[in-house]
Amino acid sequence: MNSPRYISIFILLLFLGCQAGEDTFPIKHPIENPPRFTEHKRCDNCGMDRNRFARTRYVFDTDKGRFYTCSIACLVILVKKKSVKPRNIKVAVYLNPTEMIDAEKAHYVIGSKAKGTMTRISKIAFSDRESAERFIQRYGGRLATFQEAYKEAEEELMKELKQ
Questions:
Q1: Which pLDDT score, from 0 to 100, does residue 161 have?
Q2: Is residue 67 helix, strand or coil?
Q3: What percent of the chain has pLDDT over 70?
Q4: Distance between CA 113 and CA 122 in Å, rounded?
Q5: Closest Cα partner for 125 from 89, 161, 81?
Q6: Chain centroid to CA 107: how far?
Q7: How far is the C-alpha of 49 from the C-alpha of 102, rounded, in Å?
Q8: Global pTM?
Q9: pLDDT band, residue 128 (cuts 50/70/90)
Q10: Cα–Cα 20 to 30 A to 82, which of 12, 88, 93, 133?
Q11: Is the pLDDT of residue 154 over 80?
């Protein structure tokens, strides 16, 4: 039987399918050979390089100190693990990752063609509603607040834990 051959063909087709999907979204994430966006390079939750994942990084304060994450998912996990209430939450602007803004004032796009960081469904921040809406017109998704994005990240993580 030629089952190793079929497995090889299946893997090749799977790889090509994944590569084809990447070409349809022009914004690089993670960023290859990134400049230094932050001095705090590693995510305090998962250890990923926050410069490579600069488009989705967060920084926030708690009674236990300041924390740096690569994503909203890692923010949710750290808050639960440390049993803390985050405050002064800053998020990178997806299209301009050098800019960090107040997460509560950000306009989020959930579920676009953008890759999620530590989550299957992307939750990305924009500094103004118009930019978020233009992004949605081109790449799909829906407009949301920080609280809605946080809640969805929390629900997605709980669902993953139950599987």
A1: 82
A2: strand
A3: 85
A4: 8
A5: 89
A6: 14
A7: 22
A8: 0.83
A9: very high
A10: 93
A11: yes
Which pairs with CB-CB distance under 8 Å and at least 24 residues apart come from 83-91? 86/60, 86/61, 86/62, 87/60, 87/61, 87/62, 88/60, 88/61, 89/58, 89/59, 89/60, 89/146, 90/58, 90/59, 90/60, 91/56, 91/57, 91/58, 91/125, 91/146
Q: Which residue bears the tokens 């800019």?
A: 99
Question: 69-121: per-residue pLDDT in tens?
Answer: 999 999 999 999 999 999 999 999 999 999 999 999 999 999 999 999 998 99
Residue type, 9: I
Placement of tokens 């959930």 in the chain: 110
| Token pair belonging to 78 | 């750290």
Domain boundaries, the chain: 25-162
Beta-carbon contacts of 92 under 8 Å, excluding residues fewer than 6 positions away, are 37, 54, 55, 56, 57, 58, 99, 100, 125
* CA-based nearest residue to 90, from 45, 118, 140, 125: 125
Rounded mean pLDDT, 37-50? 96
